[in-house]
Amino acid sequence: MMNRILVACAFAMLALPAMGQDATVSIKNFMFEPMNVEVSAGSTVTWQNNDEEPHTVTSEEGLFRSGGIDGGAKFSFRFEKPGVYKYVCSIHPQMVGTVTVK
Amino acid sequence: MTGKFTPTRRSALRCLAYGGAGTAFALAGGILTTFDVADAESPAANHLKPLFVQISDSHIGFNKDANPDVRGTFLRAIGLINRMPAQPRFVMHTGDITHLSKPEEFDTAAEIMKSLSAAEVHTVPGEHDVIDATGQGYMERYGKPSAGRGYYSFDSGGVHFVALVNVLNFKPGGLGALGSDQLSWLKADLAGRPVSQPIVVFAHMPLWTIYAPWGWGTADADAAMSFLRRFGSVTVLNGHIHQIVQKIEGSITFHTARATAYPQPRAGMADGPGPLKVPSDQLASMLGLTRVTAVRHRHAIALDDRTLG
């Protein structure tokens, strides 16, 4: 019974958006996964490029700009202020994502 | 070629593309026909002095499995040009010279291109050459002829050449773009030119939409085409997709070149447009360059694609 409750809790946690802690966004097959990530102010988001192709994480407002992240490399940025931050891969503009900071 | 190339309005554009397996086809007057490789390699075809040679997507700095030696394959492509019986007037690199826009990658590429026998080398930037989104590193090296804009035009052999930049105005979720400043410049550049003058346009990303989900197109290319449609012979040469795709629309022929670095999957045939891994003995047959010849006696421009192996 206890195990079931633990499993249920684990699923409940998975269902919640990543919040209040550092988050990781995987870049795979020319997509940001998850496309939308939610963190609390002061958290760090890390983008891990799992493609062989380089990508960038470039803020639409200019807040952060990774430069080229080669395949296998990563980029991190710490979000201090609440807001909705849209970003794009500047070399593959079909790749878009959002960081929401609460 | 000596003498001035003066084609007529009826100019046909002839395009030969042949791959490692010996497949070939010709485009003449907008009709796709098969073409014998033996003919393409006959002395009759080879004596023609190439107007220029297009190379593309050398991706210096790439080191993954799809091609661990992009420097070597770039050198092979240059060797192929240097061994052509008649040297082209110039060599055009249609972008993605480097993989990550790093200064040392630009230096290596420049060093390799120095070994070209051709007197002139022209370039347009690919998105990998302007990865910082400003293009500063590229413009420092290649921006001089265009006063730092990146786009420019010139005449050679009676043909008007236009080099465009469509990798600096990306829109989120969209395709490459030329932007209004460049379009105004293009309109003025073409205004007043006789319709009989052949026009060749270069840009890194395809100037027609091949596959939007992978960003294989240019959002405002139609505006550029509206200035070009009145000309009797327009050839649009792009790179970016690391494979040959062609289309003819009226008097405009679109053609993308193979890369010298690594192949990419056909549109929509993979999860994404990343490097395509092929058995190492097949790699050279999927890399190559495009040779462009003004065929004087036929009043035509001919393209032929050569593989590295």
Structural class of chain B: alpha/beta
Give the CATH architecture of chain B: 4-Layer Sandwich
In the CATH scheme, the class of chain B would be Alpha Beta
CATH H-level homologous superfamily name of chain B? Metallo-dependent phosphatases
Number of helices of chain A: 1
Sequence of secondary-structure elements of chain B = EEEHHEHEHEHEEHEHEEEHEE
Multimerization state: heterodimer
- How do the strands of the widest beta sheet of chain B line up side by side? 3-2-1-14-13-4-5-6
Put simply, the count of helices of chain B is 8
Dominant shape of chain B: globular
Q: Average pLDDT across residues of chain B?
A: 83
Radius of gyration of chain B: 18 Å
Mean pLDDT of chain A: 86
Distance between the termini of chain A: 35 Å
Number of domains of chain B: 1
Q: Work out the number of β strands of chain A.
A: 8
Number of strands of chain B: 14
The poorly predicted ranges of chain B are 1-47
Kindly report the greatest chain-chain contact and the residue count on each side: A-B, 23 and 29 residues
Brief characterization of the structure:
Chain A is mostly beta strands and 102 residues long. Helix content of chain A is 14%, strand content 44%. In chain A, strand 1 and strand 2 (31-33) form a beta hairpin.
Describe, in plain words, how this protein is organized in 3D.
The complex is a heterodimer of chains A (102) and B (309). With 102 residues, chain A is mainly β. In chain A, 14% of the residues lie in helices and 44% in strands. Chain A contains one helix and eight strands; from the N terminus they run αββββββββ. In chain A, the strands form two sheets. A four-stranded mixed β-sheet of chain A has the order 2-1-4-6, with no helix packed on it. Chain A has a four-stranded mixed β-sheet with strand order 3-8-7-5, with no helix packed on it. The model of chain A is unreliable at 7-19 (pLDDT under 50). Chain B is 20% helix and 24% strand. The longest helix of chain B is centred in the N-terminal third of the chain and has 13 residues, at 70-82. Chain B has a single domain (9-307), classed as 4-Layer Sandwich (Purple Acid Phosphatase, chain A, domain 2), CATH 3.60.21.10. In chain B, the strands form two sheets. Chain B has an eight-stranded mixed β-sheet with strand order 3-2-1-14-13-4-5-6, with no helix packed on it. A six-stranded mixed β-sheet of chain B has the order 7-8-9-10-12-11, with no helix packed on it. Chain B has 309 residues and is α/β, with parallel strands linked by helices. Chain B is built from eight helices and 14 strands. In chain B, α3 (70-82) packs parallel to α4 and α6 (180-190) packs parallel to α7. Classes of the chains: A mainly beta (102), B alpha/beta (309). The interface between A and B is medium-sized, with 23 and 29 residues.
